[in-house]
């Protein structure tokens, strides 16, 4: 019986979804908060140190410091800055979309300890005597830039001026200092220097008692200097000293180009996925296009809802999340196609396929979620943004790719208008009769000639050769560690015309930043990349940016990492990988059995090692985003492994008991052949996106994308040729040792069975 009302309901639901998205998507996109790598800006990690002996850096001191920093940032009108306390003595500041980065850096790190002193350096007034917001830039009668101050107590200022005046010429000077260092600075020494080199702000003669709250500070100021000076005073003095130990600065043009390139690459990749799904899976593919569109929209909605910041790796995570969400659609579609082939009707095949695929989907997504959570905990900055987006993507894929797809597909299937298996990519000639008693285990596949178990020793040999060769390669080439792990400074210079390596080298030598390691990159050779072993000081950063901007017309992107932070990032990266691997092996061991968990870990280590070796051979830079890529592959590769193990377990359950190694080998081989098509198609969809990111995306995530590509390819091999074979070998050893058989185990959570001896 055909039910037209199901079709009408489907059309209304889809129309409602796309109407809602179409009318609000512009606002949603406008509300997305872009990270500094997408709109320019800078990020700096400060180490907080005491200004005086005996002062302890407590959480209260850090809180006071963040308040003072926030007040200073407000002077620049930055919308929604990020100021976070990290650990016991660090503060991270992120300012995206800031045009005047140089002034902001100076403003943030200046302690702004304003003092009025006599020529003997005795303190007479300090910043606490200044009225809140009482500093402002102005001009004197000769139209020279000055700073005007409003004090709290006129009587106190009269007392101070009386004391200074009584000292007599030439000692009747009221000296204004910013950040006077006791025991280091002195007026006597500074006054001997040329005016432009003197550390004090001004030294004015006092010839009369001034009973007023209005004070003018004059000096050799520019207009911009008076503005900054006033801003610093109004923001208040910091209770501590701030030392930069990590910073990254991205020019606005770099951010805009990165955003445009990566969004374009993502759109191309996703459209290719849509075409593949529609062509190969027909009706389920059409449903997946709808749900993936809703999925992308919901990711942005949730992202905005939690006030997250979208970074460049974050965009890659959204695009990657789309590819991973396809996995659930493909798993279900492949199961439905199998049930159609054994002779079930479309309705029955849909019900059975949806039910049977749920266990593998949940297990695969949970392990990926575990890797993403570890990455979020140990990640910093843009990597944390990547992990946040990945977590959101995984959670929402349950809503759309699992629940949403089944609701929409159920409406069409149960309408009775799609009873032809051709709607699912299955021709009548490939469909058996249900009376034949054929099970999915009996179905032929495109890979029936492949004997995976029989060739396991060859796979072991190949992997052993890779292991030995990889150790040799690493011993010779080592890793090309980026500044994230080795410390130092990385610079990108952008030009409107093609750059020549030698000319850039000569220019860097000319401005005092000589570097022989200049690499010209970009589609039109308009970007120069270089690394310095030393981490630039704040002043070096400001000087470099000013000169390069003047020469090439674009503010360079610059990242600097101290040796301390570099070691910490490396340590955290190792912790992240170890914890993710441990969590996965525990989960797989509980859900399946410990031998499958061991096989999964062996295959994951195989993937990670292979990525590291390739990066070493190609001399690709290993930075913090590389770790993000490796952890993503750890999560994604385990998907393939779990789907494989899930099918092995299911097929063992159908046989109730397996008494010989030959019979077990047959089950493993058939299970691998059955999941091979799904594995290839799933990885292919993600590879499409990754290749788009490599060739069309921003250069700054190119290595990240390359690591993903390598991991995806090796992931298929390791899941089938390593993980499953390790499990088979361990099972055979146990059968030989104990003389037992593999039997069905009682069902556990997710409604699945698992084999055990």
UniProtKB/TrEMBL annotation:
Pfam families named in the record: Sec_GG, SecD_1st, SecD_SecF_C
Keywords annotated in UniProt: Cell membrane, Membrane, Protein transport, Translocation, Transmembrane, Transmembrane helix, Transport
TM segment ranges: 263-281, 286-306, 312-331, 360-379, 385-404, 459-477, 573-590, 597-618, 624-645, 680-698, 704-728
Domain Protein export membrane protein SecD/SecF C-terminal, first and last residues per copy: 244-402, 554-731
Start and end residues of each Protein translocase subunit SecDF P1 domain: 64-121
Keyword presence, Transferase: no
Membrane topology field: Multi-pass membrane protein
GO CC entries: plasma membrane
Subcellular location: Cell membrane
Gene Ontology BP annotations: intracellular protein transmembrane transport; protein targeting; protein transport by the Sec complex
Taxonomy, superkingdom: Bacteria
Main location: membrane
Oligomer status and interactors: Forms a complex with SecD. Part of the essential Sec protein translocation apparatus which comprises SecA, SecYEG and auxiliary proteins SecDF. Other proteins may also be involved. Forms a complex with SecF. Part of the essential Sec protein translocation apparatus which comprises SecA, SecYEG and auxiliary proteins SecDF. Other proteins may also be involved.
Function: Part of the Sec protein translocase complex. Interacts with the SecYEG preprotein conducting channel. SecDF uses the proton motive force (PMF) to complete protein translocation after the ATP-dependent function of SecA.
NCBIfam families in alphabetical order: 2A0604s01, PRK13024.1-1, secD, transloc_SecF
Protein's name according to its UniProt entry: Multifunctional fusion protein
Organism: Solibacillus silvestris (strain StLB046) (Bacillus silvestris)
């Amino acid at each position: 019986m055909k039910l037209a009302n199901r079709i009408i309901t489907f059309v209304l639901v889809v129309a409602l979804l796309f109407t809602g998205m179409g009318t609000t998507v512009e606002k949603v996109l406008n509300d997305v908060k872009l990270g500094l790598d997408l709109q320019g800006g800078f990020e700096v990690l400060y180490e907080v140190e005491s200004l005086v002996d005996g002062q302890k850096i407590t959480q209260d001191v850090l809180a006071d410091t963040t308040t003072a920093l926030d007040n200073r940032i407000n002077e620049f009108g930055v919308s929604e800055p990020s100021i976070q306390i990290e650990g016991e003595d660090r503060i991270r500041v992120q300012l995206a979309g800031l045009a005047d980065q140089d002034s902001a850096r100076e403003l943030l790190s200046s302690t702004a300890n304003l003092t009025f002193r006599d020529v003997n350096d005795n303190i007479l007034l300090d910043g606490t005597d200044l009225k809140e917001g009482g500093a402002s830039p102005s001009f004197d009668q000769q139209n020279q830039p000055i700073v005007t101050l409003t004090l709290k107590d006129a009587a106190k200022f009269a007392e101070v001026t009386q004391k200074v005046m009584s000292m007599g010429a030439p000692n009747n000077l009221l000296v204004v200092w910013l950040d006077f260092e006791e025991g280091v600075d002195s007026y006597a020494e500074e006054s001997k220097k040329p005016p432009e080199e003197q550390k004090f702000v001004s030294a004015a003669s006092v010839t009369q008692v001034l009973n007023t709250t209005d004070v003018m500070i004059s000096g050799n100021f520019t207009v911009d200097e008076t503005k900054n000076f006033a801003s610093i005073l109004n923001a208040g003095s910091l209770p501590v000293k701030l030392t930069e130990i990590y910073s990254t600065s991205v020019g606005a043009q770099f951010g805009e180009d990165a955003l445009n390139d990566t969004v374009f690459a993502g759109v191309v990749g996703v459209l290719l996925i849509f075409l593949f799904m529609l062509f190969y899976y027909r009706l389920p593919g059409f449903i997946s296009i709808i749900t993936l569109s809703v999925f992308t929209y919901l990711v942005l909605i949730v992202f905005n809802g939690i006030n997250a910041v979208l970074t460049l790796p974050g965009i890659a995570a959204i695009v990657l999340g789309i590819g991973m969400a396809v996995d659930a659609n493909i798993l279900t579609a492949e199961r439905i196609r199998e049930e159609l082939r054994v002779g079930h009707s479309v309705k029955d095949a849909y019900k059975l396929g949806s039910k049977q695929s749920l266990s593998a989907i949940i297990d695969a997504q949970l392990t990926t979620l575990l890797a993403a959570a570890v990455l979020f905990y140990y990640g910093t900055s843009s990597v944390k943004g990547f992990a946040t987006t990945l977590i959101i993507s995984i959670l929402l894929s349950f809503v759309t790719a699992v629940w949403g797809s089944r609701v929409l597909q159920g409406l069409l299937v149960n309408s009775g208008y799609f009873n032809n298996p051709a709607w699912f990519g299955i021709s009548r000639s490939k469909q058996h009769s249900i009376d034949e008693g054929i099970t999915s285990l009996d179905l032929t596949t495109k890979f029936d000639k492949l004997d995976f178990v029989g060739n396991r020793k060859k796979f072991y040999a190949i992997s052993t050769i890779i292991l030995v060769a990889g150790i040799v390669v690493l011993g010779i080439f080592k890793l090309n560690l980026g500044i994230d792990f080795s410390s130092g400074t990385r610079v990108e210079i952008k030009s409107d015309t093609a750059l020549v390596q030698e000319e850039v080298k000569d220019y860097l030598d000319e401005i005092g930043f000589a570097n022989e390691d200049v690499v010209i990159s970009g589609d039109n050779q308009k970007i120069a990349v270089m690394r310095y072993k030393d981490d630039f000081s704040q002043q070096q950063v400001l000087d470099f940016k000013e000169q390069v901007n003047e020469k090439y017309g674009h503010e360079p992107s610059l990242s600097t990492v101290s040796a301390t932070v570099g070691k910490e990032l490396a340590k955290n990266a190792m912790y992240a990988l170890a914890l993710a691997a441990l969590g996965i092996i525990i989960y797989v061991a509980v859900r399946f059995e410990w031998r499958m968990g061991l096989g999964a870990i062996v295959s994951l280590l195989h993937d990670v090692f292979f990525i590291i070796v390739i990066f070493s051979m190609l001399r690709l830079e290993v930075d913090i985003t590389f770790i993000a890529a490796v952890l993503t592959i750890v999560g994604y590769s385990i998907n393939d492994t779990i789907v494989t193990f899930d099918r092995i377990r299911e097929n063992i359950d159908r046989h109730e008991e397996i008494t010989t190694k030959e019979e077990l080998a047959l089950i493993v081989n058939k299970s691998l052949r059955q999941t091979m098509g799904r594995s290839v198609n799933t990885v292919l969809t993600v590879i499409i996106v990754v290749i788009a990111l490599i060739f069309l995306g921003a250069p700054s995530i190119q290595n990240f994308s390359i690591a993903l590509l390598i991991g995806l390819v090796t992931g298929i091999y390791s899941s089938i040729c390593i993980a499953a074979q390790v499990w088979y070998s361990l099972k055979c050893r146990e059968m030989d040792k104990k003389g037992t058989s593999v039997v069905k185990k009682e069902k556990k959570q997710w409604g699945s069975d698992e084999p055990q001896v």
